[in-house]
Design a protein that fits this description.
This protein has helices at 36-51, 70-87, 96-107, 148-153, 165-172, 191-200; strands spanning 3-8, 13-20, 23-31, 60-64, 91-94, 113-119, 124-131, 141-144, 158-161, 177-180. By secondary structure, the chain is of the alpha/beta class. Strand 6 and strand 7 (124-131) form a beta hairpin.
């Protein structure tokens, strides 16, 4: 049974957890905007202490690899890589859209489909669509939310989760869905995919790995001062 440190920093939730096999044995989280630089490293130390382990006792580091906040993803990635390099551990990266789906499925196991939407400002979002086995139905993508989304993907008992759900449901009057409110991504939601990747030895390339931003990152240049 692998012992894993799970780190999630792609959205408003800052979260760390320790798992042993398929069980979470320690967890610490806070849902607060721009909290990762303040709390993430200390949360990692806290869950290690709670579980009675040190980094060297772990089998791998698991990272919520995006899509999501550019800054949050960079902070989590830097911390995870540093821990991996320092203790010579493999890095497992997981989809945050799939983690949202896993969280929804844990609350409502009878769902036939899960649509996950992470807010990307305005009417834009990152989209994932998964079946009851958490297999992806479409490739994760950046979209502009519209009424066609329900036509294309709401089939049977469909759950919707993520920070982009509210503007879709309210903006287009979406019905016949199971809505999960306040559904952020937590470190524990990475575990299901992480265990599959552990079994397959599907590890990230430590040198070249970058988070999955999906959409290109745009940096606004400061205006010249006169």
């Amino acid at each position: 049974m692998p012992s894993l440190l799970l780190i999630e920093s792609s959205g408003d939730v800052c979260s760390a957890a320790i798992s042993k096999g398929n069980s979470i044995v320690a967890e610490k989280s806070i849902q607060e905007i721009n909290s990762h630089s303040t709390y993430l490293a200390s949360f990692v130390n806290d869950v290690l202490e709670q579980s009675g382990q040190e980094v060297k006792d772990l089998d791998a580091i698991v990272l919520g690899g995006g899509p999501g906040s550019y800054t949050g993803l960079r902070i989590g990635c830097s911390l995870a890589k540093g821990l991996c390099f320092g203790a010579d551990l493999p890095l497992i990266t997981c989809s945050t859209l799939k983690a949202l789906a896993a969280g929804a499925m844990a609350k409502e196991p009878n769902l036939e489909r899960i649509i996950t939407l992470i807010d990307a400002r305005r009417m834009d979002a990152y989209l994932g669509v998964f079946d009851s086995n958490l297999d992806a139905i479409i490739e994760e993508q950046f979209i502009t939310i519209d009424s066609q989304l329900a036509v294309d993907y709401v089939i049977g008992k469909t759950g919707v989760a993520g920070s982009g759900v509210q503007k879709w449901v309210e903006g287009f009057g979406v019905k016949n869905i199971v809505k999960f409110s306040n559904s952020g991504v937590y470190a524990k939601h990475l575990l299901a995919e992480a265990l599959l990747k552990w079994e397959d030895k599907d590890f990230a390339d430590m040198v070249y790995y970058e988070p999955n931003y999906i959409k290109s990152v745009f940096v606004t240049k400061p205006k010249p001062k006169f």
